[in-house]
Amino acid sequence: MLEDTGERIIPKEMKPENGMLLEHLARYTFATPYVKGRVLDIATGTGYGAQLVAKMKKKDITEMMGVDIDPTTIQYAKQHYHHPLLTFQTGDILNPDLVNEIGIFDTILSFETIEHVPDDKAFFENIMKLLRPGGILLLSTPFGQGRGKPSRSPFHYHQLTEEEFRELFLDYPNTSFYFQRGVTIEPKRQSRHYPLSVAVCVKAAEPGSHKSSIQSAFVQQTEEGPVYFIIDKTSGEQIVNQKTFYKALETIETKQMFR
């Protein structure tokens, strides 16, 4: 039996009535339409999610790799979650040489991981090194008091605010944000409280260049204040924060200059 390491699901907890397990499975199920090519599940844990995706997307992927920092957990995954397209190995996402060890990927899944590392910005930069241009990153995290502030979980260094989470993607405007309550993952509704978010980010071939897929941007006034939207040809209409909105406007102006 494996030791409980915080939010990681251990075998004795894998029961249908386990709400946390159902929430984890919901994120993997949500990810499946985006999954293709060579796929990485970082902080894969015992590997049940990686196996689920490999089974569901076996016609669309060439390889699925589950990576976790804990050797005992990886050994358990190898013994219990086999799939012909799936391999498991140990690795540290904060290791700057990880890209040389495992290569680059078309799709990366990173669910409930970034809050477990002391430097979320370094984590994000390393993730992007592992993602090929044109690839898709799906990254989730719970919200909290903010960077450098304590959270209720002893296993989390901190939990980002929604604004801090969005700011990680400022250089990647082709990002959509979804929000989770229980097993429901949906675009944000202004009247609802969401404990966590799932970002779907497409890494542009030339980030920040005039070849960005952003087509337009606009503001809608509501009773709760302005809501900022951008529209791009890949992800459609997205609600973004103010900084992302103005960065998108700069991108649109740059595109017009190069016409």
Structure description:
- The longest helix has 16 residues, at 242-257.
- This protein has two domains: 19-203, Rossmann fold (3-Layer(aba) Sandwich), CATH 3.40.50.150; 214-258, no CATH class.
- The chain contains seven helices and eleven strands.
- Mean pLDDT is 85; it is low at 1-13 and 207-211.
- An eight-stranded mixed sheet has the order 3-2-1-4-5-8-6-7. Strands 9-10-11 form a three-stranded antiparallel sheet, with helices on one face.
- The radius of gyration is 18 Å and the shape is globular.
- With 259 residues, the protein is of the alpha/beta class.
- Helices cover 27% and strands 30% of the residues.
- Residues 37-143 form the Methyltransferase domain.
CATH topology (fold) name of the largest domain: Rossmann fold
What is the spatial order of strands in the main beta sheet?
A: 3-2-1-4-5-8-6-7
- Helical content (DSSP H or I, runs of 4+): 25-40%
CATH class of the largest domain: Alpha Beta
Mean pLDDT, to the nearest integer, reads: 85
Q: Write down the domain tally.
A: 2
Determine the structural class based on helices, strands and strand pairing: alpha/beta
Order of helices and strands: HEHEHEHEHEHEEEEEEH
- N-C termini distance: 62 Å
For this structure, the quaternary state is single chain
Number of strands: 11
CA-based shape: globular
* CA-atom Rg in angstroms: 18 Å
What is the assigned CATH homologous superfamily of the largest domain?
A: Vaccinia Virus protein VP39
CATH architecture tag of the largest domain: 3-Layer(aba) Sandwich
Low-confidence stretches: 1-13, 207-211
DSSP helical segment count? 7
Beta-strand residue percentage: 25-35%
Question: What is the makeup of the main sheet?
Answer: 8 strands, mixed
GO molecular function: methyltransferase activity
Keywords: Methyltransferase, Transferase
Domain Methyltransferase: 37-143
Protein name: Methyltransferase domain-containing protein
